[in-house]
C-alpha cells in the first residue's frame, strides 16, 4: 500500500516531468525546480532517479526527456488505436485541402494533440503532438464538448473560460449557445480564438454509444482558408472514422 510520503514523491516526479515545455531541448535542474516550484535539492534527486531509469537523458549539465518516455507513450491504447485508425483519413484531408490536419482527444478541460500532419507553408500553430490547449478556444475542443455529457460541459463553463487570444470567447452563455449549434451541425470552428491569424474547422469522432473519442480538424491562415469550403471534408472524414470505430449513425 502506498504511503502519503510515496504519493507526495510521485506527485513531485510528475511536476518535474510536466515542467518540460514543448519547445525545450535540454533544461537545467535549477530551471526545472523554478518552473515546478520545488526545492532544488528535491529536483536534483528526482532528476537523478529519472535519468537512471531512462526517463530523462543527460546532456552536459542539463537534462531532456528520454526516449523511454516516448516508448511508453506509444503503448497508450486509446491514443494508439485512434491514431492508427485516423491516419488514412488525415492524409486524405491534407491532400484534399492542402492544410494542416489535427487529431486530438479531450482530457478534462483541455485538448491533447495526438497527431498532426503539417502542410507545407502552414502558419506557426500553437498546437504540437502531446501538447495541450484549453478546449474552449479550439475547434477540436468545442467539437468534443458539444457531444460530451452535460455535467462535464457545465463544470467547464462554471470554472471560467480562459482568454488565449483577443478573440477567445470568455462568456459562458455565448459558448453554451455555440455548443448547441455545433451539436446540430456536427462542425465546430475556431475563428482566431487560439491564435490571431489562424482559423480551423473541426468535427468530432464518436464511438459505440456516441461516446466522444476525439476530433479531427483542418487549420490554416485566416486569409487563405475558406472554412465553409473545408468544413464538409472534415465532417465527412470524421463520420467515416467514427463508423470504423463502431459508431452507428442514424439512417
Task: Describe, in plain words, how this protein is organized in 3D.
45% of the residues lie in helices and 20% in strands. The protein is of the alpha+beta class and 251 residues long. The chain has 2 domains: 4-72, Winged helix-like DNA-binding domain superfamily/Winged helix DNA-binding domain (Arc Repressor Mutant, subunit A), CATH 1.10.10.10; 77-244, GAF domain (Beta-Lactamase), CATH 3.30.450. The strands form 2 sheets. The protein has a 6-stranded antiparallel β-sheet with strand order 5-4-3-8-7-6. β1 and β2 form a beta hairpin. The longest helix has 21 residues, at 77-97. It is globular and about 55 Å long. It starts with a helix and ends in a 7-residue tail after the last helix.
Topology (elements, then pairings):
Layout: H1 4-18, H2 29-36, H3 40-52, E1 56-59, E2 62-65, H4 67-73, H5 77-97, E3 100-107, E4 110-117, E5 132-134, H6 139-146, H7 150-158, H8 172-185, E6 188-191, E7 198-206, E8 212-221, H9 227-244
Antiparallel strand pairs: 1-2, 3-4, 3-8, 4-5, 6-7, 7-8
Helix pairs in contact: 1-2, 2-3, 5-9, 6-8
